[in-house]
Amino acid sequence: MAEVQYPQARTPFSDYLVACNGLEEAGFEGWAFFPEMLFGAQGQWWGDRGRRPRPHEGIDLCLYTDKAGQALRLRESSRIPVMFDGEIVKIEEDFLGESLYVCHKIHDGRGRRLFTIYGHTKPANGVGTGGRFRQGEVIATLASAEGRSAGVFAHLHLSVAWVSETQPFKELNWENLHDPGVAVLLDPLHVMDRPYKILAPDTRVKSG
């Protein structure tokens, strides 16, 4: 299997997310994840903790630790910045909110360009397909998880992928991101900044 190629520079995405949500004031120390929230995870972290229908396409970003070591979660309606300069090329509904597909002018030299996808969100006012945004600009907020599966709370499903330059934007979806002829999924934690830790399944999480 060929080695997965990552963009050369890491992104200050975490810095933007922390800043636009005032997390430094809350004592932000680093991101935190249950194992099932990580890239490639086979299991669910909510409900009956059964198996996912497919390996996890990205990370579920919603937990962080403070300087006292407590695990906290992002508030609903937390603001979501874009990871790199890019254009929103598709918006589709998902089971908590909407997914925004953003195409970036970053290429891998193998006929693919970089995409970031922000799932379970509510697009910000004025944000729509065709909108162009600079790195760090807010494009959405977290969608509410109220009334959904037991144990699930508002979170950002973040995916990063190299997508074929011949792939029509309107045909992109969560299923064909697993098709190697369409996309090569990347672990977002290899692109992002800031430290993170893995939590034990019984870790108590407080509202941020």
Could you explain the architecture of this structure?
The chain is mainly beta. It has a single domain (13-199), classed as Glucose Permease (Domain IIA). It is 4% helix and 36% strand. It contains one helix and 14 strands, in the order H-E-E-E-E-E-E-E-E-E-E-E-E-E-E. The protein has one helix at residues 13-20, and strands at 28-33, 59-61, 63-66, 71-73, 79-81, 86-93, 98-107, 112-123, 132-133, 138-142, 156-164, 183-186, 196-198, 205-207. Strands 2, 5, 6, 7, 8, 9, 10, 11 and 12 form a nine-stranded antiparallel beta sheet that branches. The chain has a five-stranded mixed beta sheet with strand order 13-1-3-4-14, with no helix packed on it. A hairpin with a 4-residue loop joins strand 3 and strand 4. The radius of gyration is 16 Å and the shape is globular. The termini are far apart. The model has no long low-confidence stretch (mean pLDDT 93).
